[in-house]
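Protein of interest.
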Amino acid sequence: MKTVSRIYMVLIFLFLYAPIFVLILFSFNDSSAMSRSVFSGFSLRWYSRLFQDRLIMEALGNTLVIAVVAAAVSTVLGTAGAIGIGSLKNKWMRRVTMNVTNLPMVNPEIVTGVSMMLLFVISTRAVGANLGMGSLIIAHITFCLPYVIMSVRPKLMQMDPHLYEAAQDLGCAPTSAFFKVVLPQITPGIITGAIMAFTLSIDDFVISYFTSGTTQTLPIFIYSMTRKRISPEINALSTVLFAAILVLLIVVNARQSVITDKAARLQSEAEEAEA
């Protein structure tokens, strides 16, 4: 059974990651015919052309700006929302609020995109503006918020609810007690939510397509290229993004591992001191 389980696991990982490895391989293809099936040799020509392509760099810049702003704002608002939901005394009100909060995650993206487009069109006509960077950022913040709340809430539930009150009893002001006691406890959830919001924002196409106006993000730009033949520059760009996200995840997981080991060591020392 162990052999069968291992083979099954290898096949699953192969199915998931083989397309990514093929994409990375062909980003180094030396073929001048833009072949997607024949590897002609190793070359960095597509990476060189990637950073010289003004349209791709502009779309990438828009995507990164939107992702950073949306992740930052949704992390702050989502953390505040998670704390607010946790402070509700009425159990049924808390459940209803969480269900309403989770609704955008299960709602079809095309429905969210069309409804936001209609809202923005009506709003922009009233003030004489157009869809663009502003509408994209607001849309991305909206669909990232539930994921941040979902990441922070479990950490709040794991925390001892009396720690905040104990800090105030010992002389901390409410704000100081939050930053010194509550925030360190929920920081892993906040970081997870911020990373999730950032990656979701970079990856989004459907909602961005309906709310972008004349502003192009990277997924929209790549979609527009599918009407013609996709350049291997996109393979190079996808490889760069994949490597950046992979490094970010490794750093965050390593940091979390260090924090967990430190907490376990302190707890062990405290137990030994009590004994």
Q: What stands out?
A: The chain has one domain: 56-263. The chain is about 80% helix and 0% strand. The chain has a mean pLDDT of 82. Residues 184 and 268 are 19 Å apart (CA to CA).
